[in-house]
Amino acid sequence: MMPIRRKIAAAVAAGALVLLPAAPALAYEPVNVVHTEHVQAGPYEVTVGFSEWPLRAMQSMDVSFIPDGGIGGKSGTLHVTGPTRLHPNLANSTLARHPRKLDVWGLDVIALDRQGEYTFEFRIDGPQGLGEGQTRPVEVLSQPGPPLALSWAVCAIPLVGLLAFLVIAWRRHSVGRTPLHPPV
Amino acid sequence: MTSLFGITWDVQWHDDVGPDTFFTLSHLMLYSGSAIAGVVALTMVLRATVAQRAGRPVDPKEGGRTVRVLAFDAPVGYLVVGTGAAMFLLYGTMDLWWHGVYGFDAILGSPPHMALFSSITTTMVGSIIVFGYAHAERWGRIGLALSLPSLMTFSPLMFEAFEDAPLPFKGNIIMNAAVCALCLVLAVGIVGRPVFAVVVAGALAAVHVVLWFWAPWAAHAYAELSGLPVRDGVGSEPPSLPARIPMLLLIVALLVAGVLSRVRRWAPPIAGAATGVVTAVMLDLQAPLINDGPMVPPGILIGDGLTGLLLGAAAGYVAWRFAAMVRGERREPNPIGRTAVGPTVLGGTA
């Protein structure tokens, strides 16, 4: 039986071993725009910038919404529609500054789950009154990478393994059974 | 515990601040949980192997009965802890590749994330086995009072992927309820005292309160440290992950303690079923109440309640038997016809 002081010392040593060499390095990706779409929302022209093009399902991207004359004095809402029901945060949201590009509105690290056509609909309020408009349908291609079923099968191994271990333990634990390996 | 705090912080960071790299502090904290567990497990397996080789028997209180794996003699609890940690490392590399293909985390429920969460869950199950074998020692009981709430809070993350599945019940809610039933019945079964369910529920409530206030603070303080602004429109919502921890489980635990203090064969499944149904309904009602969101449709509420009841009963039954394993296993073979020692509250085997 190991005394508790030694147990604590071992845990602290293990923690130090892991944490000491690690120095967090923060270098965030810039918000790139590789493709733009233009929307006329009443009196306001909005440039929609995508960080990926062509768009693919499940791939994360940044989207910037840049109204002519900047975002000062303006507010608005965004409504995204697609081939399936979208997460409420995406389907209806208030236009907010992009966390990594604070002079424009935007969505950071979002992914559109399904292949199909999506539209971004704006309702903007500003010095020239209310304006509404939407993008032309934006095409999202099929997902990259291996088929999803294969990814799920590979990633289910730990859970299946855990359940298998519990089942084996259950079956081996019967009254009068010898242990897994004879005593030394 | 480290993994639990790391993931809570990371989820809050994604929600409130946004920018992400592999090397954020919250990620490091999450990885550290598995790394520390892996190093400890490896150390204990090596110690047991050396002891066995030297002809010294290993006390089952040190992580359970030893199992021969390749050339090692691994105490079963540490074997499970270490396997979980090793899988975490393996799937960490897969997650890195996944991000190369799909970019940054847009969703919590991606396949590699599920594998990582189930690896951490495996490590937590292993630590429950380790502490369970040491239930007669004070450190074992303290460990159980911390590791069971960790599992209750963490394991539902694995079922995040089922959140929007078109089922007549909510997969993540009922699994959370079943895990709570499993843990409360395990607590009583292993320690052999009904009041220990209340101790575990109390520990969960304490963890809940700490996480609730700590997650937003940590996310925002770290944002300030990194010179990053908090997202627009953040501040009024409750912290996202702590909001999913079942509240008022103390009341359920009192019920469990009451049911299990009576010597009856059906007590564990009944205690599990009660926990399952109450927790599932509570989780359904708690989400709209604290988020001001839409109420759950009655059909789903009934579906969750019934499924929670059935799964909870199964969890209670299973938990009692596993508790008997942890309490009753001996290194010597049991003579034929002699019963193994089960949880004493039943007055015999489970």
Automatic annotation (TrEMBL), chain B:
The chain crosses the membrane at residues 28-48, 69-94, 114-134, 141-159, 171-188, 195-215, 245-263, 270-287, 299-320. Keywords: Membrane, Transmembrane, Transmembrane helix. It comes from the Bacteria. This is Uncharacterized protein.
